[in-house]
Amino acid sequence: MKKFKFSEEFNRKVAPTVARYPRAEAALIPLMQEVQRELGHFPDEAAQALAGLLGVSYARVKGVLTFYTMFRREPGGKYLLQVCRNLSCHLAGSVKLLEYLKGRLGIEEGGTTHDGVFTLITAECLGACGTAPVMMVNDDYHESLTVEKLDKLISDLRAAAKAHK
Amino acid sequence: MGEQILLKHKVVSLDGYKASGGWTALEKATRMEPAAIIDEVKKSGLRGRGGAGFPAGLKWSFIPKDSPKERYVVCNADEGEPGTFKDRELIRMNPYLLIEGMAIAGRAIGARTGYIYIRGEFAREAALLEKCIGEAKVSGFLGDKLFGSAFGFDLHVHKGAGAYICGEETALLESIEGRRGQPRLKPPYPAVEGLFACPTVINNVETLAAVPAIIERGGAWYAGIGAGKSTGTKLFSISGPVKKPGVYEADLGIPFKTFLEDYAGGMADGKKLKAVIPGGSSTPVLTAEEALNAKLDYESLAAAGSMLGSGGIIVIAEGTCMVDALLVLAKFYHHESCGQCTPCREGAGWTETVLRRFEEGGAKPGDADLLLSIANNMMGRTICPLADALAMPVISFIAKFRDEFDAHAAGNTCRMGASR
Predict the structure, then answer these.
(1) Could you tell me which residues come within 8 angstroms of residue B23 by beta carbon, excluding any fewer than 6 positions away?
(2) What is the reported pLDDT for B411?
(3) How close is the nearest chain A Cα to the Cα of B199, in Å?
């Protein structure tokens, strides 16, 4: 396995994160989130390195990594689209939105567009049922969606991705 | 409409919170004996707003008085029960109220540290709480020697990483400790051996946010609101085809019919009410008639054969396929089963598989009974209530809408396709 090197920014955050808990191992998930925030995903090599850093087993880190759905083990698109598929969103037409996105982006659930801009997945209840249907784009909620709104949102995100290139 | 205790108005700054009477309850609590605080909360009749409805004061009183160990206050903000979105609203509207409630809980049980476990998807709300906690520390409302007393309290935000099961209190503790979110066998209960094996109180956001008003105005005042043993106000989240879906604070005991019409504006687009899931996706479904005759409180909904749960009301209109709706829930619970207990792991998987046969073709006569048999083998046979949370909708959907299941089996597939 490749040796993983934490960033300087990450290293600066270790002590204050660990200090929030009486046991260092409780900092595991927050530090995994920090790695993912920097890299966009959490590579397996980082699991080994983090296990060493916190003095826990590799199996423990791998177990956590595979249990929680927000950890992404493979690199994905610049924008992670998560369409809520639970009941309130389902009743409000989330299936149509998902079908629309698959068609427009030319990918299936779990896929990433060729240009690396979008990854499309479904999510379980995002806790915003009053404004269903709902989709997350990275950390942001987009609520009360319609196909028209979604169409514009995708165009805007594409343009933003291009501008940042 | 009754008094708004939790969502009176949006509080956007620490100064605004102070100006509207914030922190006076905490100041009062620092001068009260811990036992007196617990007594006041007991007197209020406040019950857990996360779903279980356990009396909060009683929960606090289980913390061993003589334990030499550290104690912790943990806030469950892992809001994820489908149909529930009140805690997010409360955090956005009045984050300081939660912070003050947690500090008072800390004073009551002798804890110096609290953690807010918030689901990872609520990144913006987590950042808001961190900002508010930071401000409270700078202004002396958190930290050492609060209001000149010996009591000090510090608070941290801990983000989840995408697992519904972490809303179960012992799975939540495992998750804070940096493990997979698998519920613990009880006993020991968290009050005796909770976070880091220390005495711990875990309450829902809404429960903790109700505490400052109780301390300030007294348990008897709070107990005077509501209906019977269901005291106080409750945040109801209502979604589905109603005119004004959203989060509303109402006195417990309000008739569902009044709530639907006066708060949620009635059904949208001339739709007709078919069914109601009254307290989050795991609570048994009610027919329109049952719902329209029910009151929204713990006892009334239990008498109607369901539960108040989290107060997450999902409204279902005529034209909706109940088999399809149940399949959505089965997929969810299957996905979210932690895999620890066989009846849940396997039962949820088979429930989804059999329901797919109804929707996609291949259902056999007797499959509705097969679903019931699976559900009955899940109920009460696992470490945590996630298995029950799927079994209850399965049993109630089939009991009340059996004709739809049978019609699917006879016609081999779903003909309604209402929401597809």
Answers:
(1) B17, B100, B141
(2) 82
(3) 14
What is the CATH superfamily name and number for domain B14-224? NADH-ubiquinone oxidoreductase 51kDa subunit (3.40.50.11540)
What pLDDT, on a 0 to 100 scale, did the predictor assign at position A59? 97
pLDDT at position B12: 86
B195 touches B36 (CB < 8 A): no
Distance CA A116, CA B104 (A): 49
> B380 with B267: CB under 8 angstroms?
no
Which residues in chain A are contacts of B312 at CB distance < 8 A? 129
**Residues of chain B whose pLDDT is less than 70?**
412, 415-420
pLDDT reported for residue A164? 80
Q: Provide, as residue numbers in chain A, all residues whose Cβ is less than 8 Å from the Cβ of B161.
A: 29, 32-33, 68-71
Domain boundaries A79-164, corresponding CATH code: 3.40.30.10
Interface of B with A in 91-110 (CB under 8 A): none
Q: Assign a CATH topology to domain A8-67.
A: Arc Repressor Mutant, subunit A (1.10.10)
| Inter-chain touch B281–A64, beta carbons under 8 Å | no
CA distance A129 to chain B (A): 6
Query: Where do we find the tokens 């034209």?
Result: B319
Kind plus residue range of the DSSP H or E element containing B235: strand B233-239
pLDDT of residue B420: 39
For the complex shown, is ipTM > 0.90? Answer: yes
Report yes or no: A128 at the B interface, CB cutoff 8 Å. yes
- The matching CATH number, chosen from 1.10.510.10, 3.40.1440.60, 1.20.1440.230, 3.40.640.10, for B322-411 is 1.20.1440.230
Indicate the SS3 state at residue A151: helix
Residue range B305-332, pLDDT digits in tens: 999 999 999 999 999 999 999 999 999 9
